[in-house]
Amino acid sequence: MTRRVARAIASGTHLLAQAGTGTGKSLAYLVPAMIHAVDDGERAVVSTATLALQRQILTRDAPLAADAVEALTGRRPVVALLKGWQNYLCRHRVAGGYPDDDDALFAASDAGPRAGAASLGEQVVRLREWAGRTATGDRDDLVPGVSDRAWAQASVSRAECLGPACPFHDDCFPAAAREAAARADVVVTNHAMLGVVVAGNPGVLPEHDLLVVDEAHALADRVRSQGAASLSAAAVARVAATARKHASAVVSDLEAAGQGLQAALAALPDGRLSAGPPPALAEALAALDGAARGVLTGVRQAAGSAGGAQGGGADAGGAALARTAVSDLVDVVERMTSDSVAQHRDVAWVERPRMGAEPPRLTLAPIDVAGPVADALFDERVAVLTSATLALGGGFEPMARDLGLTLAAAPWEGADVGTPFDYARQGILYTPTHLARPGRGISEAALDEVLALTEASRGGMLGLFSSRRAAEEAAGVLRGATDLTVYAQGEDQLPALVEAFAADEDACLVGTLSLWQGVDVPGRTCRLVIIDRIPFPRPDDPVSQARSEAVAAAGGNGFMSVAATHAALLLAQGAGRLIRRAEDRGVVAVLDPRLRTARYGSFLARSMPPLWPTRNRDVVLGALGRLAAM
Questions:
Q1: d(CA 451, CA 1)
Q2: Closest to 261 in 3D by CA, of 284, 241, 238
Q3: pTM of the entire structure?
């Protein structure tokens, strides 16, 4: 893989490199990237999807690679970490330069379902104590962490920052991180930052001629989510309250427009707006646009006055909060009143939150991100994209198309550099074709299969389910029929559940989408992975619908390009939880006969690790029994 990356850099060719778990792919791209930076004076940016991989690169792989490059070239490459502005503590906010959210500070608790969780006020006190001793201000360096609401009391967005007017301008954590990145040879960042670049903000990253995207399978979805925007009456009311409180703005017209939006949305059913906003909603959005722009003029004047009179005082901070909130609202409404839906760039839909008293909201998301990704990330630089799951259905074309490489000016090539694992000897892929095709929910027969498999393996089971209800039902069956310890997503914070599961080789962990990717539990602890059904996107998912229609309109197969590709990626990721080391052994059970009986089943199966396939229940139960007895 190192040779393929070096060749791509030298030739100016984009590279899709599939590299199995345990390959050492971080070293494989870091070494040639560092040599390129040292020899040619060019910078490389490395992006990851998960915090765990980011930490691994910074604390283990990058120092090791830098040692080797320094021994070879005589110069040690400099590595820096760069995150979004709000990931860093704001000294001015902690010092009282911005108004506190008093309602939030006196909330009883905001730390999730754990017993004894600290109140929001207690978390903020701990944050302020930490501010006096941290050298980075990086949220991830605060252990234990705090809730999002607590962190919001200690950070600001880039737009809310006072810049040179801030009394802490010369000692600013996010500014220092950007200065360090500008001096570095290799900058480590995350996919969310790449999403910001794709959205039209190239300046958030320093200049670079090499982009390495690790965990590249997650990039397109991360960019799509970054490009989504939502609007509701509750959001408008919060903006109005902020403008009134911190900028003394007259917001009566804005509040009235918010109520008009709520009435228009309440009259619509949940679902996609294929032709864009209907007349009543379009009228409400137009009224909201005018009201928001009127308030924006006022808060800008207030921000200017506060900055001139108070410098970096609390009035200036509050006015900056108000200006940013109203500006963001104007941007969202402007996008929703544009012709992006009619021109099939965006898809719009109405949805009602399942929990809480929030009113219905209007959401907009990009249909296709391939073009913007190609223009923003791959133009005039070499891109190396790597992951354990890039060759879907046995080829790289689906992923290259989704990531925008097929639209890039430079050529691209795909390479499967192999794996250290012998999947056919280490694992079994079991598809019980005696089960019926899944319907709504999980069937009694499928639950019986979950129980039989888990009893045979005596635990050590990771259950990946298509819905929270299915996971809860499976947990209930296991707890009622066995004495195994069963952890279920939602009963504690996910990292705590994974840690507890990893510590007990006979425990079980069941959950939904969050467990399909990024869970790394090698050894006997995870010897059985159960997947209840092929993870197609929901039939009523507006983005998937719109993407499928766009592919069909262009003469392609919408189902295979969107739904099947989505399912193939998740199946590959889910099955990849089983074999994490050369000595691992186990079974992946997919309780959906369509993997073997449907026409698209072979495409899905070719996307998964090449485990030894069987439909024989007795063979699988026997193998699990022998594993449990080892």
A1: 42
A2: 284
A3: 0.87
